[in-house]
Please model this.
Amino acid sequence: MARFAFWLIALPLLVAIAAFAVVNRGPMALELWPLPFVVTVPAFLVILLALLAGLVVGALAAWLAAGVQRREMRRRGRRIAALESEVQALRRRVAEGPEPAVSRPLAIGAAAGRR
Model:
């Protein structure tokens, strides 16, 4: 289903990009300011590269902004793992049954002195 949805969106998008490239084939002169030369490229290339640069910058900004959430999720994951191991240890102790009563030695001298 996901593959079908991908092609349902990607195919019309690819057709639109191809049509855009065919319509905007005219030359465009780019002057790269600090450099002393001018580059002539098709107009669609300039526009599509600008869109691609915007997508990359946006994706990088989103990834950096989500860093706090990723760090918090890692911290919570470690906490959950520690709690699960503690629960397993407690379940093993309960399964073993009640612990035998610990016998404490009586202080005979102290008990005799109270009489």
